[in-house]
């Protein structure tokens, strides 16, 4: 994943804080399916307890920043210059449509929240496998609450599905995972948070646009300033929009003249559906299908760049569990193994990519799709998650990358983020080492590399 915050959202509750780590601190790749997902303990109270096997997740403090804009002297300088920095953004805000009176009103008395810098740089890391992450988020409590939320807002969800041709159960699942159906939205004033990040520290360039977008929200009257509260990174609302994403995707679905994703369930669900539609959602299709692979399967085909029609997957011996019928023969999909060859397998459609447009992390999108199916009445996955799988820590993932690079493999940056280059390198190494080439950056691969390197 890039170093930018995840576009369009976040974070408020557990899932959100997991994924802002991907964007702000670089602690996992956008398509990281190894379970290296950061989960601050402070966010866990609103969610079901992790399964027993997740108890082994180990917190580790992030390494101190070496960025020149994050040194104590640089932060002190930015803090002292905060008011001048905010004032300097008036031309940019005016160009974006913020009134002169509005700019003065909403910036008067703004002060930086320097505590945000600590969150930006020292988010603790908890290593979880993809299975632990999905199991934790798709809990029986969240399934039940999702059904209740949809029943209480039946007309809204029916209208959203009809207007945007998007699966309303997926919209409800995003609501459930983002803010636990509204109970975990975050309490930071968005103007203060985005102003702080726009004028202090290493993310100033990115957050200037977010701050200006937040100013425009309150100046145009979409959301009252006192209601515009969310995460320390500036995301807000029932389904956690970043201010720029709000400007791009939010809609006035209840017709009251305001796009209020904080107080209006209709606006929040309509805006979320609009974002999915823009992300490429295709009506009448599932996000993906659990499948069972045959013995001696060619795991080199487990690559999101290898797309095949369902008929070709079937010809390779791929089946749905329990005798369920395969999807339409001409529908194309790629094979995803979020826990490697030892875990469940999935054929992912273009609608999975649409969910990824909301947040580009495979484990997140899988949790969204699975929760949607469970709220609808579907059952749990048939194939179990591996009980003995351990997620590598960020330091271990970086070590794995360095060891692969020393052997000539192109893994990209040695940053502990498992992206497509690292997965390809892992797969190539697995072939050379006689391991199943599933591309999984696992403890088995790291131990094999250590053994071959004699350390």
Structure in a nutshell:
The protein has 20 helices and eight strands.
Order of helices and strands: HEHHHHHEHHHHEHHEHHEEHEEHHHHH
Residue-averaged pLDDT: 86
Could you tell me the number of beta strands? 8
Spatial strand sequence of the major β-sheet: 5-8-7-6
User: How much of the residues is beta strand, in percent?
Assistant: 5-15%
Domain Peptidoglycan binding-like: 396-449
GO molecular function: peptidoglycan lytic transglycosylase activity
Keywords: Signal
InterPro entries: Lysozyme-like_dom_sf, MltB-like, MltB_2, Peptidoglycan-bd-like, PGBD-like_sf, PGBDSf, SLT_2
Q: Layout of helices and strands, plus pairs?
A:
Elements: H1 14-25, E1 59-60, H2 72-80, H3 82-88, H4 90-95, H5 100-107, H6 115-121, E2 125-126, H7 130-137, H8 140-152, H9 154-164, H10 168-179, E3 188-189, H11 190-199, H12 204-219, E4 229-230, H13 243-249, H14 265-278, E5 288-291, E6 308-309, H15 310-315, E7 332-336, E8 345-348, H16 350-356, H17 362-376, H18 394-406, H19 420-433, H20 443-453
Antiparallel strand pairs: 1-2, 3-4, 5-8, 6-7, 7-8
Helix pairs in contact: 7-17, 8-9, 8-10, 8-17, 9-10, 9-14, 10-14, 10-17, 11-12, 12-13, 16-17, 18-20
Description:
The protein has 455 residues and is mainly α. It has a domain at 394-453. 45% of the residues lie in helices and 5% in strands. It is built from 20 helices and eight strands. The protein has a four-stranded antiparallel β-sheet with strand order 5-8-7-6. The protein has a two-stranded antiparallel sheet with strand order 1-2. 52% of the residues are buried. Mean pLDDT is 86; it is low at 1-62.
């Amino acid at each position: 994943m890039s170093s930018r915050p995840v576009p369009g959202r976040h974070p408020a509750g557990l899932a959100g804080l997991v994924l802002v780590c991907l964007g702000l601190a670089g602690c996992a790749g956008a398509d990281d399916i190894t379970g290296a997902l950061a989960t601050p303990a402070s966010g866990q109270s609103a969610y079901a307890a992790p399964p027993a096997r997740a108890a082994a997740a180990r917190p580790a403090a992030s390494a101190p920043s070496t960025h020149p804009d994050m040194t104590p002297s640089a932060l002190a300088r930015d803090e002292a210059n905060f008011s001048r920095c905010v004032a300097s953004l008036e031309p940019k805000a005016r160009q974006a449509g913020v009134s002169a009176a509005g700019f003065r009103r909403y910036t008067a008395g703004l002060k930086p929240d320097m505590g945000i810098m600590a969150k930006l740089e020292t988010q603790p890391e908890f290593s979880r496998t993809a299975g632990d992450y999905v199991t934790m988020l798709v809990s029986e409590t969240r399934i039940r609450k999702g059904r209740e939320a949809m029943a209480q807002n039946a007309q809204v969800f029916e209208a959203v599905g009809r207007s945007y041709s998007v699966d309303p159960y997926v919209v409800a699942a995003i609501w459930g995972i983002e803010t636990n159906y509204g109970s975990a939205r975050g309490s930071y004033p968005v103007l203060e948070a985005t102003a702080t990040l726009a004028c202090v520290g290493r993310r100033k360039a990115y957050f200037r646009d977010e701050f200006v977008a937040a100013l425009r929200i309150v100046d145009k009257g979409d959301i009252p300033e006192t209601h515009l509260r969310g995460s320390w990174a500036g995301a807000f609302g029932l389904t956690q929009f970043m201010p720029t994403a709000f400007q791009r995707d939010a809609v006035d679905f209840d017709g009251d003249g305001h796009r209020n994703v904080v107080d209006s369930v209709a606006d929040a669900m309509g805006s979320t559906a609009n974002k999915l539609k823009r992300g490429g959602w295709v009506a009448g299709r599932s996000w993906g299908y659990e499948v069972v692979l045959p013995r001696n399967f060619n795991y080199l085909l487990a690559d999101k760049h290898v797309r095949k029609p369902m008929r070709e997957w079937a010809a390779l011996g791929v089946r749905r569990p329990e005798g369920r019928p395969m999807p339409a023969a001409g529908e194309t999909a790629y094979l995803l193994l979020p826990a490697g060859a030892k875990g469940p397998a999935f054929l992912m459609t273009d609608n999975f990519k649409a969910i990824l447009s909301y947040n580009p992390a495979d484990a997140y999108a899988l949790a969204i799709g699975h929760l949607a199916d469970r709220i609808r009445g579907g059952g749990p996955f048939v194939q179990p998650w591996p009980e003995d799988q351990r997620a590598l820590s960020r330091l271990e993932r970086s070590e794995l990358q360095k060891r692969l690079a020393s052997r000539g493999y192109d893994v990209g940056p040695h940053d502990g983020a498992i992206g497509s280059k690292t997965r390809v390198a892992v797969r190539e190494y697995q072939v050379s080492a006689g391991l199943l080439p599933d591309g999984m950056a696992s403890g088995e691969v790291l131990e094999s590399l250590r053994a071959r390197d004699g350390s």
